């Protein structure tokens, strides 16, 4: 009986501390984060933080955290938990943001696991949007992971979808024009 009471007190204390820590993190600026908390964080403006690596002339690696132009859906002032990093198969020192991981079967299995997909909305939101940018619907990918992972991945790899490049719109000689870089040959 006493152990249950102590367990409840410890749980309540842990929750109070976690709320205090999350509340005290307010006004997160990506540029103020270190390399161990940058990746998968969201600034107070709702933009995702990105870890970048620069090599100095001396050969020394310099890591900086910057604000990306990618916005998180309904999320601000967030540093991803170690539990979600582990459950989703991620690494704290991930550089940049890429959808390439979605083509790796093990990574897709981790993202689609109940521990990640149902418990880590920040990570799921990020990879949902990255998958959508590649023409893939993450819930369908997760469904394919459960039924036939190799077939689902093969469909993604062979989709032939190419994201459009940057486009510029201008006005010259009394006419509007649109220009875009040529697509890479296949």
Automatic annotation (TrEMBL):
This is PAR1 protein. It comes from Penstemon smallii. InterPro entries: PAR1 (IPR009489). Residues 1-26 form the signal peptide. Pfam families: PAR1. It comes from the Eukaryota. Keywords: Signal.
């Amino acid at each position: 009986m006493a152990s249950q009471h102590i367990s409840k007190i410890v749980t309540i204390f842990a929750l109070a501390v976690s709320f205090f820590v999350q509340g005290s993190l307010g006004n997160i600026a990506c540029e103020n984060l270190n390399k161990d908390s940058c990746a998968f964080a969201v600034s107070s403006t709702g933009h995702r933080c990105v870890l970048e690596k620069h090599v100095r002339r001396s050969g020394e690696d310099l890591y900086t955290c910057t604000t990306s132009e990618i916005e998180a859906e309904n999320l601000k002032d967030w540093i991803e938990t170690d539990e979600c990093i582990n459950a989703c198969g991620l690494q704290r020192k991930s550089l940049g943001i890429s959808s390439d991981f979605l083509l790796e079967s093990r990574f897709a299995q981790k993202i689609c696991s109940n521990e990640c997909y149902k418990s880590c909305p920040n990570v799921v939101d990020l990879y949902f949007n990255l998958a959508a940018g590649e023409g893939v619907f993450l819930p369908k990918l997760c469904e394919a992971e459960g039924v036939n992972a190799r077939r689902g991945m093969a469909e993604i790899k062979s989709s032939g979808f190419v994201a459009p490049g940057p486009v510029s719109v201008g006005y010259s000689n009394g006419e509007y024009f649109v220009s875009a870089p040529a697509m890479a040959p296949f």
